[in-house]
Amino acid sequence: MRHLLLVCAACGLASAQPYIAYRGVYNVASFMPAGLPGGAIARGSTFAIFGRNIGPSSTPQLSFPLATTLGGVTITVTQGSTTVNAIPVGLTSGQINAIMPSNAPLGLATLRLSYNNGRSNPLPVQIVNSSFGIFTANSAGNGPGILQNTTTVAQPINSLQGPATPGSAVILWGTGLGPVTFPDNVAPSPGNLSIQTEVFVGGVKAAIQYNGRSPCCAGIDQIVFQVPANAPLGCWVPVYVRTGGTVVSNFVTMAISPDGSPCKEPNNALASALINGGKIGAYAAARVSTHEDIAVPATRDVQTDLLAAYQAQEKQQPFSFNPMFSLPPAGSCTVYSILGDLATDDKAIIAGMTPPSGAALDAGSVAVGGAKGSQTAQGGGTYPGMSGVQLAGSILGLPVTNTTFLDPAGFSLTLGGGKDIAGATASFTVPAPFTWTNRDQISPVTRASGLTVNWSGGDPSASTFIVASGVDLLTIPPLWRYASRRRETPALRSRPTRSPTFRHPDPARCNPRAWCTWGNGTSRIRRRSPPPAWTSARSCRPWWAARR
Fold first, then answer.
1. Is 34 in the same domain as 67?
2. pLDDT at 467
3. The CATH number of the domain where 121 resides is what?
4. Rounded to whole angstroms, how far apart are CA atoms 420 and 423?
């Protein structure tokens, strides 16, 4: 019995040991995944640590000068013989917010946390001079940013109902501009930092009036910029910050209208429910044709026909946002960076894609019918309000059954009817696809040169969307396929035009590590940079250690 009690006591101590999650350190504003260009932690910035049993349930009262121990939590950052203490400023049992000292060593360092005499596992962290993150209303690093309009004394947060106007000054809140010369634990001294700071609004460079610490808060920055006179108007105009000429922040959005009245999206019918509140039903029947020429023994063309549905009741809110419908203005570009593979992982999703301000609606079955029969989308999956089905698929050139469903012709969409939406039927026509004429001529993307996509055919009166995505390719044996993945997806949109050419006007707007260029339902993947070391999700060890 004595031995049993000793074992159980040891188990209790082990369970309370602080544990920092794998890749569990992020810029507290952007939550940019580690390993991406904007995923490092800047000197003098506020960062978040995620884990288990890493702190108390609440934060004690703070006052200047801030201490390096708070609520029993101490954080060290070590590189070789150099060790500095981060400054904890926000505590819960699963998340610690802290300030990285301005004198922290640059490069790869080791972060450890101590709490109640327990010491956490070590975690590698990349420290740089500047890597900026913009705070957002959803606290997830995307969607409406925390920007203040200065047209009134109250300086309200920019919103769908309270947009900025061209030429007005806006205060942008974030963290990660860079180190300061005064101590990080005292009330900040106002003043511009020397780091090169640029703000882009809808792809247009803005004039900077201030870039430095916020007078209110240690480790928090403010950038005051003027909305360019030629910035595009809309409810979700992309905004990002670039520091040092190279490091790009997360992309957020702001609302801009010509006179400060509530923003409008006249060319985006899908946005009405988000802006004004109301019901939305969006249905997509699509053929995705992929040209696979990476990590395959021979190039192949794969076709997949899909049906997807989204039904929700939205409420009018100041920061409503859904990346599926909150589209950037024509000619501009936005970027989403997440952990996970959007193509294969149901849990990898861009924040806001589920009904963000309301609830899912029940419309019963959703079916599409045509010359080859009828098929029904399957609901009840991971995310409420969404359903989908693979209609058909083919791999050209292989001796397998090749089927197609959405061939150019007339089709019907039928809602079976549910408790929220009555049954209904609508007809639509699948048009002949356009042709991506320079697909096979695209080489690895050089940012300084940009990327040109040419096509022919299609509807000249329709809007054209170009989506480029990059994902780190699997670099370990198939046995170790249980791996984490990073995906970074920029979405671009061009205005309705008869010109069959879209040229990405400023390669600095988007920050993908790799491009998967889409057009005519086809894609071509080109890797731009070496993939990182993968980690087995089961063992939490570097892949090369797992192989030994």
1. yes
2. 82
3. 2.70.50.70
4. 10
Residue 347 domain-assigned (yes or no): no
Identify the domain boundary among 387, 414, 430. 430
- For 184, left (φ over 0), alpha (ψ -120 to 50), or beta? alpha
Tokens, residue 217: 């808060």
Please list the residues that pair with 334 across neighbouring strands: 491
Q: What is the 3-state secondary structure (H, E, C) of 208-246?
A: EEEEEECCCCCCCEEEEEECCCCCCCEEEEEEEEEECCC
pLDDT of residue 343: 63
The vertex-538 CA angle with 533 and 539, nearest 5°, equals 65
Q: Specify whether 117 is located in the same domain as 143.
A: no
- Quote the longest CA-to-CA distance of the chain: 83
> In this structure, how many other beta carbons lie within 10 angstroms of the beta carbon of residue 52?
15
What does the DSSP 8-state code read for residue 4?
Answer: H
Output helix, strand, coil percentages for the chain, rounded to the nearest 5: 5, 40, 50
* Measured distance CA(106)–CA(100) in Å, rounded: 11
The residue type of 509 is: R
CA dist 84 and 132 (Å) reads: 21
From the list 264, 246, 245, the residue with the least C-alpha distance to 256 is 264
The C-alpha atoms of residue 311 and residue 65 are separated, in whole angstroms, by: 51
Residue 6, pLDDT score: 41
Q: Could you tell me the residue range of the domain that residue 543 belongs to?
A: 433-548
Nearest to 328 by CA among 495, 453, 131, 88: 495
pLDDT attached to residue 485: 33
Q: Which token pair is 131? A: 């890597």
Question: What would the two tokens of residue 90 be?
Answer: 């926000």
Residues of the chain with pLDDT below 50 are: 1-14, 474-548
Model pLDDT for residues 501-518, shown as the tens digit of each residue? 333 333 232 332 222 222
Distance, in Å, from the CA atom of 333 to the CA atom of 354, rounded to the nearest integer, reads 22
Neighbours of 317 (CB within 10 A): 18
Q: Which of 187, 188, 190, 170 is nearest to 255 (CA)?
A: 170
Q: State the pairing for strand pair 107-115/118-119.
A: antiparallel
Residue 419 backbone dihedrals phi, psi, to 5 degrees: -70, -20
Q: How far is 163 from 149, CA to CA, in rounded Å?
A: 8
Please write the tens of the pLDDT for every residue from 470-508: 766 544 333 323 333 333 333 333 333 333 333 333 323
Distance in angstroms between the alpha carbons of the first and the last residue of the chain: 40
Indicate if 452 and 513 belong to the same structural domain: yes
Please give the tally of structural domains in the chain.
Answer: 4
Cα 171–Cα 172–Cα 174 angle in degrees, nearest 5: 140
What residue type is 118 in one-letter code? G
Is-contact 485 537, C-beta < 8 A? no
In a shared domain, residues 413 and 276 = yes
pLDDT value at position 197? Answer: 98
